[in-house]
Specification:
Blueprint: E1 3-7, H1 13-26, H2 37-45, E2 52-58, E3 61-73, E4 77-87, H3 96-110, E5 115-117, H4 125-134, H5 149-158
Parallel strand pairs: 4-5
Antiparallel strand pairs: 1-2, 2-3, 3-4
Helix pairs in contact: 1-2
Length: about 160
């Protein structure tokens, strides 16, 4: 049985949240997910939607997803950020991840973005090898920098 990739619907968000949670566990951050399925529905399907999500299905089961959103580069213009791409552990190695990756790249091309970007953990060798084989460029001179909620509040309090 082959898989299908389609744009996610609001009813898919509980399954998407399960995948996000599985990814957090895989990335050794099991308590990092703070959102719920309703947050995904509100943020992805409202009037001012913040993301687009693609799901991979086998039969009627969602087994993978890729979530993207637009960014703007002052150097390049319209960009697409791939936030998460995950396939359920038991369905890896069947081409589903590549199918989702291909869909993201097609979507970026259709939307006329000037680049697609994402981050990958330095220990995720399988993903790194896959991205390398796809022709992606690794920017090794750049650091990923974040200001999480607690740090943001602390910083703003000092202003």
């Amino acid at each position: 049985m082959g898989f299908t990739i389609r744009k996610a619907q609001p009813a898919d968000m509980p399954a998407v949240l399960e995948l996000i949670t599985e990814l957090a566990v895989f990335e050794k951050e099991p308590d990092a997910v703070k959102i719920n399925a309703q947050t995904l529905v509100d943020s992805g399907f409202g009037e001012n939607r913040l993301f687009t999500c693609f799901v991979a299905t086998l039969g009627d089961k969602i087994v993978g997803m890729a979530l993207v959103y637009f960014r703007f580069s002052t150097w390049a213009g319209k960009s697409l950020h791939l936030e998460d791409l995950i396939v359920k552990q038991e369905h890896r190695g069947k081409g589903i991840g590549k199918g989702l990756y291909d869909q993201v790249m097609l979507y970026g091309a259709q939307e006329d973005v000037k680049r697609v970007e994402w981050v990958v953990l330095d220990w995720n060798k399988e993903a790194i090898d896959f991205y390398d084989r796809s022709g992606a460029q690794f920017l090794k001179d750049w650091y990923l920098v974040q200001m999480d909620d607690d740090r943001l509040k602390k910083y703003v309090k000092q202003l």
